[in-house]
Amino acid sequence: MCILTMQSMTQALKAKNVLETRGVRVTIVNLDPNLTDKGCAYGIRFLCGLESKVKGILNAKNIPYGILMGAQDH
Amino acid sequence: MKSEKRTVYLDNAATTFPKPDTVTNAIVRCMRESGGNPGRGSHRMALRAAEIIYACREEAANFFGADGAERIVFTMNTTYALNIAVKSVLRAGDHVLIGNMEHNSVLRPVAALAEQGKITYTTFNVRGTTEEILGNIRKTVRTNTRALVCAHIPNTSNVELPIAEIGAFCRKRGTLFIVDGAQSAGHVPINVRDMSIDMLCVPGHKGLYGPQGTGMIVAGSDALLSGNTLMEGGSGIHSLDRRMPDVLPERYEAGTLPTPAIAGLLEGIRFVKRIGIAEIHDAEAELWHQAYDRLSEMPSVQLYEKKPGGVIVFNIDGLSAADVSELLDRERICVRSGYHCASMAHRALGTIKTGAVRASFSVFNTQRDIQTFTDAVRKIIHERKKELLHS
Fold it and tell me: What does the DSSP assignment read for B331-375?
């Protein structure tokens, strides 16, 4: 599974709602605090292989996101 | 057996009552099923609570024309919202313009900053035609005017300020526009984008029919992003940082949000959308006409508001406002007397020495309520006359 870090719980929920209306199943996860500079953060988890689609949808909706984890660079 | 008199609630400008059943049911359901802490962890109960909060943000953003759910900052009430709005963006040396009928929730934060020597403020007359009001603003605005703060509808009047026109003036000039929507949210349409409102401060428990303990700032621009925080604490994110996060809405939401209350507010907004603002406005105006027509037939009644809307403000000759309110309460009619936390408004109405009685309507009031209310006023006047004759 791949994880995209999100700015906040609000943005994670926004991303989840938008992605699920486009058929992308998403789970919100609490990230390991060591993975971020500032501690507690949330991410969205989805099937690897959908990275481009997910990023494209989020970009189109102006939903900010951070780094992608768990995926090979394509 | 004598049947108990029913209570007639006419203090809806303070807080609406009753609430729709959908609101009450949502609160109970949330208490029973979604008791996790929203935004604190990702276990199922925390997420369920966070989803309720998010759904309400989305509904509110859609209702008020905000560009996204993150632009809804939940507060305890309008007063908290206005304090955050005013104090987060004003800087030393700024000048602020406020209306001359403002509630203390606008006047006091502004006056407090002025007393601390940080800012100066001036008032402008909010009554007149749109052109006259804009003229009053142009006359009082200064080069260092950072913000204009005013009520959309003052709490003792049905006068609706030309918010879109004032907003356009402010946007053109680069002045922040902060609107107190305490008496307008749910009563008249508000769109922060179309009206160029930077920060709209509204209650959840009045015209949106949510529970007490709810209010919000609807951010119409990015002005809040760089603002100072009034409260600091847990935000669920960036826990290693000593500063509050620089993202909305978390920057201004320190501590746990009241999920059950927000669940109720969500249903309140849906209720208003289902009925329709125009229908609510018309229903209240019809009640106002009925009350106004009947009260104006009574020579001892002084009426202070001639524009139809959600409130009717009056006094009875020879009786204090507090006495009238108490006598009406004996008839199980709930109205509010005094200055309504708005000395500026009473000064403008000419009732600063006496205060006044305010009856205010909601969509749940009926013509029968108005009949009961006006019959009671007539009875009070009649009893007063009898007392005078026998004294």
Answer: TTEE-EEE-TT-HHHHHHHT-TTT-EEEEE--TT--HHHHHHHHH
